Amino acid sequence: MKSAELRDMDVETLRAKSQEIDNQLFELRIQKSMGQLAAPGKVRNIRRDRARILTILKEKAK
User: Fold this and answer.
1) What is the widest separation between alpha-carbon atoms in the chain?
2) What is the Cα–Cα distance from 30 to 11, expressed in whole angstroms?
3) Per the structure, how many domains does the chain have?
4) Which residue range forms the structural domain that includes residue 39?
5) For 1-50, what is each residue's pLDDT tens digit?
């Protein structure tokens, strides 16, 4: 997800997206612990998307 797309979203949508990403990360962590994770690079991309969302939420809070 690109930063420009995220900046166009409102705060409530960003919070919902952040919650969705948290759930995805939880599921991926469980898969990793069971040895069933097919794409380990996906975790990295999702974590970065979450960081982008949190950064933009903090920017909008100012």
Assistant:
1) 42
2) 29
3) 1
4) 3-61
5) 789 999 999 999 999 999 999 999 999 999 999 999 888 899 999 999 99
* Under 8 Å between Cβ of 18 and 57: yes
Question: What pTM does this model have?
Answer: 0.86
Check which CATH number belongs to the domain holding 10 and give it: 1.10.287
CB-CB contact of 6 with 56 (8 Å): yes
How far apart CA 53 and CA 31 sit, in angstroms, is 24
**Tokens for 12?**
């409530």
- Tell me the angle at which helices 40-61 and 11-34 cross, rounded to the nearest 10 degrees: 150
Q: Are residues 54 and 6 in contact, defined by beta-carbon separation less than 8 angstroms?
A: no
Closest CA to 40 of 29, 50, 48, 51: 29
CA–CA dist 22, 4 (Å, integer) = 21
